[in-house]
User: Fold this.
Amino acid sequence: MRRSVALVIAGAVLLMAVTRLAAAEIERLGPCKPDAHDGLICGTGDGAARVIADTTSPSERLALAWRTPGGPPTEQPDDDDIELLLIRLADGAILAKRKGEYWDTGESHSNRKEEKAAWSRDSRLMVETFDTRFSTDGATVYAIGADDKASTLDLIKIMEPAVRAQLRRRVKSDEGYVFLVQRVGIDIRGRIRALVHLWVPKEGPFAAFLVTATVTRKGDALAARIRAIRRSRQTL
Assistant:
């Protein structure tokens, strides 16, 4: 069993850097200011961004935000045009950008979708998770350098296969099980601890696992390694 776990862990290493913006390429939307719905909007008019609640860093300098380039964040967007941003609140600088699905105008919001951010206490590392009704469909590590340049790593591509390999040791088939991150944290050294579930939605069977991983940075590249996966008794 230990040998099998070691093989899973050894195979779950990925060296990848996605999204690093040079200083000259950084788009600045303008300072993020309070709106009428206890939120923050960065910039004005079409292409402005709205900060996603509860994603601000401990330093209160950075946060996740959403926008559509062709419309204001005060109106329901076209789902195909949504962008997820890592933004600097002082000037609205976009430090990282990718396709998004979550939106919230302050008066209405996307249905059964949630963006969450778990920050290290020094505000230099963050795990972003995107949840739909029953599952976590995305998990991304953000690393922010001293110059505020950001790199990202697709964590779900590393974590989910490793956890599923453990589940298949206990059940005949993992078909129908979905992946859900119940809780995740990251420290200043890049150590990740996560409680994850593989479960069949709507009262189906489930299995809980405690996952530990380490993220390291070398130049523009991030690397993640699964350190341990063990069964947990914690329930949904």
